[in-house]
Write a structure and sequence with these properties.
Layout lengths: L7 H8 L2 E3 L4 E3 L6 E8 L4 E7 L6 E11 L11 E9 L4 E2 L3 E2 L11 E7 L8 E11 L4 E9 L9 E5 L5 E7 L7 E11 L13 E7 L11 E7 L2 E8 L4 E10 L2 E10 L1
Antiparallel strand pairs: 1-2, 3-4, 4-5, 5-9, 6-7, 6-10, 8-9, 10-11, 12-13, 13-14, 14-17, 15-18, 16-17, 18-19
Length: 269
């Protein structure tokens, strides 16, 4: 699956930090990001670093792969990059999670952005997550991978909801803001996936979503909202208007044929 990049400018703004000198502009692509894990894909002689906007949580996490030559440290800006998350449960069962793999084999300022929608936390009484990162050494024409240990926590406020239907289907609904939400109109994404098997979580493109923000403590909503509609790969894009700081609840009504489901997400602005 491929990452839905709503605006190249928005993604770039989250990746770049500039410091000026007399001669050139220096770019630190990981400024403001959190390093999650690192390892070396030995056969490809590639060091793999995984960065994120924050510590990993249950829900939709944008991940950035930073690749470099394991010997020289030089950045590798052209490579196949594929993510395969895997949860090994204490019961002995294993399952994956929905993934948006990097859209291009060309890095954006030395980072390959993708995403994983983690569907449960890790823990000693639950299980552990790993992330297999497949890379390709273009010079040697060698594909290799590194497997990294991850820690995924349950966020204070839910960022992903799941529900099952009478016919045995299970759906995972998560949300994401391209930039930190603020007072005013914000770009807003909803991602919907289903479980096909323990290793397959395909995107669902044919839901209809109506959205209504509410401020429970104040007893009002907001105008000028745009309900999310499908763009591609299970991403539904709209706009939500927060008229003031405080606690907000985003109500979503989902419909797909005869299926109808109401759910909400709480957040603070």
């Amino acid at each position: 699956m491929k990452l839905n990049l709503i605006s190249t400018g928005i993604i770039l703004s989250t990746l770049l930090s500039f410091s000026c000198s007399d001669d050139e502009v220096q770019i630190n692509p990981t400024e403001g990001l959190t390093k999650i894990a690192e390892g070396v894909a030995t056969s490809a002689n590639t060091k793999v670093e995984i960065w994120a906007d924050e510590d990993l949580f249950v829900g939709y996490n944008v991940l950035y792969a930073k690749l470099s030559d394991a010997t020289t440290g030089d950045a590798i800006d052209e490579s196949l990059v594929q993510f395969t998350p895997m949860m090994s449960m204490v019961s002995g069962m294993k399952h994956s999670a929905p993934v948006d793999n990097p859209k291009s084999e060309q890095a954006i300022h030395s980072l390959f952005p993708g995403a994983v929608n983690f569907i449960m936390p890790s823990g000693t009484d639950i299980g552990s997550w790993t992330l297999k990162v497949k890379v390709q050494n273009q010079i040697r024409n060698v594909e290799d991978f590194v497997e990294l240990d991850l820690n995924v926590v349950t966020p204070e406020k839910t960022r992903m909801n799941s529900f099952a239907t009478e016919d045995g289907m299970k759906y995972f609904v998560s949300y994401h803001f391209m930039v930190k939400p603020k007072v005013g109109v914000n770009d807003f994404e909803v991602m919907i996936h289903t479980k096909e098997s323990m290793e397959s979580f395909p995107a669902v493109p044919d839901f209809t979503i109506t959205m209504e923000p509410e401020m429970p403590s104040m007893g009002h909503g907001s105008p000028n909202n745009v309900s999310p509609t499908h763009t591609n790969n299970g991403h539904y894009v709209g706009k939500v208007n927060f008229t003031m700081t405080g606690d907000w609840r985003i109500h979503l009504n989902l419909s797909r044929g005869e299926l109808a489901k109401e759910l909400y997400f709480d957040l603070d602005i």
